[in-house]
Amino acid sequence: MKIKRSAWIHIALFATMILYLVIAPLVEVKFFIHQGKPIQLAGALPEPTDLVNHAVDVAKEVVFQGEKIYRVNGWSFLTTATDLADYDTYLVLNSPRRDYVYPAAPSGRRDIPRAFPEVKLDLANSGFVVFIARDALPPGQYRISLLYQHKGTGERVYQKTQRMLVRTPNQLLLMDLEETP
Predict the structure, then answer these.
(1) 14, 24, 30, 178: least buried by Cβ within 10 Å?
(2) Residue 50 scores a pLDDT above 80
(3) Torsional sign, CA 102, 103, 107, 110
(4) Quick one: 37 exposed, middle or buried, by C-beta within 10 A (0-12, 13-18, 19+)?
């Protein structure tokens, strides 16, 4: 009788551990991760265009407000805009199952106005920073896209890049599309 009871205790403990391994990451993302979560935008993404000059430079793990997240840096500007301050910018991660949208905060870039002297826009703040929580993104490959939304009219301009993020169990890797494993 003692052997059977001991076996059931071990089975119950093993089942509890497996349940914990499945549920703990979901609970962590829902209740404990506050930075770097994707947002929901109303409406569908428009058809891709070629109206955005851009580059996604780096994805690096950082600690921001006490949380380990990834910071994605790059630059972009909408070639048809009269003022970039009139637009909200988003980084979109496209997968076959779902699109993940992250708000991009503008950042200063001194090199971009020098690289594009013919552009009449103020490109001093054409840089962007996006924070992505690794654990809020399922493992997989995500093509990086950029979305501009006019603050007044809601008009959207969407463009796919030639870069992608690969989410492995332990990290996010920034890669060119042709480098895909």
Answers:
(1) 178
(2) yes
(3) positive
(4) middle
Centroid of chain to Cα 125: 20
Residue 14 pLDDT greater than 80, yes or no: yes
Q: Which pLDDT tens digit goes with each residue over 131-146?
A: 998 888 889 999 999 9
Q: In the beta sheet, which residues pair with residue 130?
A: 72
Q: Which residues contact 86 (CB under 8 A, 6 or more apart)?
A: 150, 151, 152
Which residue type sits at 64?
F
- Any idea what DSSP says for residue 31? I
Q: Would the pTM count as exceeding 0.85?
A: no
For residue 167, give every residue at least 6 positions away whose Cβ sits within 8 Å of its Cβ, in sequence order, or none: 134, 137, 138, 139, 140, 141, 142
- Does residue 180 surpass a pLDDT of 90? no
Query: Could you tell me which of 59, 74, 63, 131 has the C-alpha nearest to residue 102?
Result: 131
The secondary structure of residue 7, as a DSSP letter, is H
Conformation bin of residue 142: beta by default, left when phi > 0, alpha when psi is -120 to 50? beta
pLDDT, residue 29, reads: 56
CB 60 within 8 A of CB 173: no
Average pLDDT over residues 101-115: 93
What is the rounded distance in angstroms from the CA atom of residue 33 to the CA atom of residue 81?
35
